[in-house]
Specification:
mainly alpha
Length: about 100
């Protein structure tokens, strides 16, 4: 769906991109809840590698969502996006050539 939404700014592509960013964040926050059904009450099963892979894949998908945001020009990545923060110096002297 992310590829099909295109680069244009419309409500569909923005909602798909927002979902692509929020889903991995929610997944990373709820890792223990996602693996609760796989846990062994006796502690014999080690799920750390599975949880690490789960987090890695969610970070990868978050990167894809942020890449999509940058292609839609929603992330401030160019110098023109930060133009309002540039401090301009006041010119104390001016000179001109008479006509």
């Amino acid at each position: 769906m992310l590829w099909m939404s295109g680069k244009n700014l419309n409500i569909f592509s923005i909602s798909i991109t927002a979902t692509a960013i929020m889903s991995p964040i929610k997944g990373i926050m709820n890792v223990s809840k996602a693996f609760r059904s796989c846990e062994d009450p006796e502690g014999k099963v080690d799920l750390t590698s599975s949880k690490a892979l789960f987090i890695l894949l969610n970070l990868l998908w978050l990167g894809v969502g942020l890449y999509k945001c940058s292609k839609m020009k929603l992330l401030p990545l160019t110098s023109a996006d930060w133009e309002s923060y540039v401090v301009w110096k006041n010119v104390m002297e001016t000179s001109s050539i008479p006509p």
